[in-house]
Structures are given as C-alpha cells and as structure tokens.
Amino acid sequence: MKQLSDLLREAKANPPAARYGVDQVVAAGRRRRRRRNGGWAVAAAVAVAVMIGVPQVITRAGGRPPVPAAPAPVTTYTFRGYTVDGYVVKDPFILDVGAVVAGVGRSGAGEKSSVGSLTVYRPGVAPEHPLTGLAAAEPMAGRTAFYRTVDHQKILTWEYAAEAYAELATPEGEVSKADAYRIASRLVMGGGAEPRIALRVGYVPDGYRVMETWSSPGEVTRFVRSMTNIMLAPAASQKALLTNPGRMFNRNGSAPEGEQRFHDQLVIGLYPAGRTREQMPPEPCDEKSCMRVLDDDVSMLIVGGDLPIEEIRKVYESVTVVSDFTDDAGWYPLSAAVPPSARLVVE
Q: Which CATH architecture has domain 196-342?
C-alpha cells in the first residue's frame, strides 16, 4: 500500500485541472469512497476527493424505517480520538448527516501510521458494508458484532448502542482480529469537538443546508491545504436520502430509470491549485462553477450542480478564507462557518 508521502508527491506532480465540471468532482468523490476504508482519507484529499456517500437508514423486520428524532442542529463530532495499546484513533475529520469518521494509525509512527478508519454511524443509520445474511462474530461488550473481509479489507462492525453501529476498517494483514476488537472496545461516545473550517460562507441559497463537512486543520502541510470541504443540499433531498433504504447519493444526478435524481448539491472546498493567478481567465465563473487561486498551492472551488450560475456566483463572492492555513486557532468553528439557516440538521 502506498504511503501518504508517495501520494502527496504524485498529487503535486499531477495537479487537478484548473476548472472542474460536476462530472470530475463526482468521479473524485467516488474514488474517495472506494479508498476511504482501505487507508487514511487524507491521501484522497490530495487527489481532490470531494464527497462521501450518505449511508442508508436501517430497516426493521417490517420494512419501515425508524421514526427520526426531532430536528436538531449538529455542531460537534459524536466522539473524540483515543489511544489503545500501540494504536491511535485520531480526532474525527468527517461529519455528515449519517456518520462521523476518524483515521486510525499506529502510535508514534508518523505519516506511516495509517492502518484504516473508524466510522461511527448515527442511531438508525446502516453501515456502509451491508450486514444482511452475515453470521455474527464474537459479541462486543455483549452486543452484536460482525467480522469479515470486504475488498481486501477486514471490517469489524458492532452495535455500540441499540440500533447504532460503528465500523472499523483496516487493510488485510495490517491489524489482527484481537487488536481490532481492542481498538473498538475503547470507543466512548461523547466529548467530540466542534469541527473547524478554513473558510466561512456568508451566503447560502434559500433552503440549502450542510450535509457534510470534511476538515482536519491539524494535518495541514505545504501540500495538504485542501482540508476543507462543505457539501450542502436542500433539506428535502437530505430527508429523501435518509428515508429511502438502500439508496446512495447520486451526486451527478444519474440514477436508474424510475428513481429520483439528486443533482442539487452545492460543494465549496479548497484544493491544490492547478495554475497560478496569472494563468486564470479574467472571468472566475463558468456555467456550473466558480474558482479562485488563493496562492501557488491552493484554489477555492465552488460547484453548484443545477443551481443557476447567478446563485453560485453569490456564494463565491460571500466566501472568506483564513489568511494562514497553519494557524489552527484561526479556522472558523462550524457554527460560524455557515449562516444559522444552513447548519447541519439531523431529522
């Protein structure tokens, strides 16, 4: 498996195109989803990976989804990082409507420490890797657990609370089953910090709200400054996604005939720059996106799906980016990074 340093060098040598259409952003997101549990998602960030899929809601025996709790803004990660016998679960870096994700590594091993990821799903949300038809493994603290191989990964999935699952994914041969159980057994819910974002959005189209953030200020380096992405969509789309079991988010609007198409997403992010300011055209926006080169290494990109370019331009003109990416304290807390009406809400 390639090390993070190798991926960084490759990304720097082959930067993304200067302008992105929705198709390019979607393709990057799909690559990220395939890679996420096989290694540390930071590497995928350098490859301009934008989004992850929204997990589906668990169905009970009767086929009815669980009754959602009352809507409430989500302002913090659901857990925080911890260590256990030579391993470290890093503080989470992905927060979305269905789950929270953290990287897992070996203690004191630097950038070579990555051994996988931990995904903690919200109650009532099904794990990414289906459990249908699986034989249960040894219980985890008296609750149901599953352990199997999926696409050259060892996946330990367990119920950390009633109808609430967590998933530890590691490459085959990297972490023993006993170690996976020990890592999983130390998960404690609560105490998570509020995500901090390297940009602030002043204008969000009416009805749009956050569905996912991806941010890791502590990992910023010269080459990895693209550690902020915010994905927004109308509340109706979020509800439709989380109340239709088995349906994943089709971010390019493609879907099997007869299924609803979701192509109203708005993505705002920072990425490795593909060209200098001098190489940029005078007009920062095309028909679906706006882009600005911040310095020799970083670009800001806004892709708006089917939103009118006038709306995308309004968002673009409202964004404030931190002046120093290495100053963690200067990053905006999530609650201040978007207008109150656009905050992430779980329904």
A: 2-Layer Sandwich (3.30)
